[in-house]
């Protein structure tokens, strides 16, 4: 399954890095930046998370919540949040069900080896719960600023 802009975003309930259950519907009335990333503590994922951290206040001013999603367990998320001072929640998608619903669980290749994993992607969900914008196969450099600019120009 894959989502389309303008449609309702797929609902989910996942455990967060603070140990609590989080549902997308908890954030109705706010813009949501839902970003999927492959793995905690890796260079690209760390850069992306720190870029979101550094722009967190600017997203907050636009009534936007940042949620990161990866297949890593809570314990790994906790360490990642603590090490980098992340002011937003990371969600656990160990069975990759949510990643599949958003169409980001893909066959990947690295050094000739094929495996299933998350394709770095970001989804902007508007205050009504509709998918407003998506970026797939995200390149980290400049991406967070692009997402912020989209919300400023289209959803604030």
TrEMBL record:
PROSITE patterns: THIOREDOXIN_2 (PS51352)
Cellular component GO terms held in the UniProt record: cytoplasm
Keyword Kinase: no
InterPro entries associated with the record: AhpC/TSA, Peroxiredoxin_AhpC-typ, Peroxiredoxin_BCP/PrxQ, Thioredoxin-like_sf, Thioredoxin_domain
Thioredoxin domain segment(s): 3-156
GO biological process: cell redox homeostasis; cellular response to oxidative stress
Oligomer status and interactors: Monomer.
Keyword presence, Glycoprotein: no
Gene3D superfamilies: Glutaredoxin
Domain of life: Bacteria
Keyword entries, A-Z: Antioxidant, Disulfide bond, Oxidoreductase, Peroxidase, Redox-active center
Entry's EC annotation: 1.11.1.24
Any GO molecular function: thioredoxin peroxidase activity
Protein family: Belongs to the peroxiredoxin family. BCP/PrxQ subfamily.
Name of the protein described by the UniProt record: thioredoxin-dependent peroxiredoxin
Reactions performed catalytically: a hydroperoxide + [thioredoxin]-dithiol = an alcohol + [thioredoxin]-disulfide + H2O
Stated role: Thiol-specific peroxidase that catalyzes the reduction of hydrogen peroxide and organic hydroperoxides to water and alcohols, respectively. Plays a role in cell protection against oxidative stress by detoxifying peroxides and as sensor of hydrogen peroxide-mediated signaling events.
Pfam families: AhpC-TSA (PF00578)
Active-site residues annotated for this sequence: 45
């Amino acid at each position: 399954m894959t989502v389309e802009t303008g449609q309702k975003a797929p609902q989910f309930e996942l455990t967060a890095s603070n140990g609590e259950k989080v549902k997308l519907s908890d954030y109705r009335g706010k813009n949501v930046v839902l970003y999927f990333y492959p793995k905690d503590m890796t260079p690209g994922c760390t850069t992306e998370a720190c870029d979101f951290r550094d722009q967190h206040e600017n997203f907050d001013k636009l009534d936007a919540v940042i949620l990161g999603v990866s297949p890593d367990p809570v314990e790994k998320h906790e360490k990642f949040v603590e090490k980098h001072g992340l002011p937003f929640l990371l969600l656990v998608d160990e069975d990759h069900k949510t990643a599949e619903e958003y169409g980001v669980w893909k066959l990947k290749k690295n050094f000739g080896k094929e495996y299933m994993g998350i394709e770095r992607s970001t989804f902007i969900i508007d205050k009504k719960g509709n998918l407003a914008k998506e970026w797939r196969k995200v390149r980290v450099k400049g991406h967070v600023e692009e997402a912020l600019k989209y919300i400023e120009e289209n959803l604030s």
